[in-house]
Amino acid sequence: MLRRHRSMAFAAGMYVFPGGAVDARDATDDVPWAGPSAATWAQRLGCAEDLARALLCAAVRETFEEAGVLLAGASADSVVDEVTDPGWEADRAALVERSLSLSALLRRRRLVLRTDLLAAWTHWITPAFEPRRYDTRFFVAALPPGQQTRDVSTESDRVTWMSPAEALAGAEAGEVALMPPTRVTLSELSRLAGVADALDAATRRPIVPILPRAVRDADGLWLQTDLP
Predict the structure, then answer these.
(1) Pure H helices in 71-219
(2) How far is residue 77 from each of residues 55, 98, 120, 195, 213, measured CA to CA in Å?
(3) What is the rounded distance in angstroms from the CA atom of residue 133 to the CA atom of residue 211?
(4) How much is the mean pLDDT over the chain?
(5) What are the tens digits of pLDDT across the range 41-81?
């Protein structure tokens, strides 16, 4: 998880998963691709094919940009195991600066995006009353063998591994600030035994938009969601 800088305009000081906005170039159809097709992902995510392609590319690109982990390989059954040398770091920085696209990076490195390494988890939309609104998909993936997360994000001041249970305990103690979608996701994951169970559970979860709304009762104002 990444702790966002306290100076950020959105979610300042919050612990979040790696991720970010779709880049227009993420939707190009020339991305070297291995695994379920964009059409298959579109059916799974309940969206158009070009958006599905963009979402998968953005998930892979942002995870590399913010955590130094790249879900790509030289073939459909391999994954790169070293992405920390100066050449790779220059490529990561170019992605962040938008002077290099994910498609161009993969083609130059002769790699394919491994869409089979990702599994869709959920789909959250920011409540209508919020001034900043986001339409966000969450994915799960296993850390590829040989790779490790790194503190490389310019938007965070801390990058750390913690179990879902540890993150939730930290939130209860007031030490880990979490937004509602992150907290719900961690709660769901905390009920699973490990990575394999999470990946398996993701294949069976319905992916429907979750749009929290404000409700008031005798105890105060609450966010209410209709979770699937």
Answers:
(1) 86-97, 102-109, 164-172, 180-190, 195-204
(2) 22, 29, 20, 19, 43
(3) 11
(4) 92
(5) 999 999 999 999 999 999 999 999 999 999 999 999 999 99
